[in-house]
């Protein structure tokens, strides 16, 4: 994912210096589609993902669960 600084640099290179997408991607080492998205977007890119809940909210450490035998 691009940082805000990278996004700003891509837009500066394209709009202020007039560089093309291929030139920018080679100079910065990012994918052409990433450069295209940054040039077309009016605001910095952000992730659509929420925070990750690694344990699903119901984490129980191993060895703390008691099992009962069915009678």
Structural class: mainly alpha
So what's the overall shape?
Answer: rod-shaped
Biggest sheet character: none
Helical content stands at: 40-55%
Strand content: under 5%
Number of strands: 0
Mean pLDDT: 81
Tally of DSSP helical segments: 3
Q: H/E series, N to C?
A: HHH
N-C termini distance? 56 Å
Uncertain ranges? none
Taking Cα atoms only, what radius of gyration do you get, to the nearest Å?
23 Å
Please provide a brief summary of the model.
With 71 residues, the protein is mainly alpha-helical. It has helices spanning 4-15, 21-28, 32-40.
Report what the structure shows.
The chain contains three helices and no strands. The protein has 71 residues and is mainly α. It has a domain at 4-40. Helix 2 (21-28) crosses helix 3. The longest helix has 12 residues, at 4-15. The chain starts with a helix and ends in a 31-residue tail after the last helix.
Architecture blueprint of SSEs:
Elements: H1 4-15, H2 21-28, H3 32-40
Helix pairs in contact: 2-3
Quickly list its features.
3 helices, single chain, 71 residues, mainly alpha, 0% strand
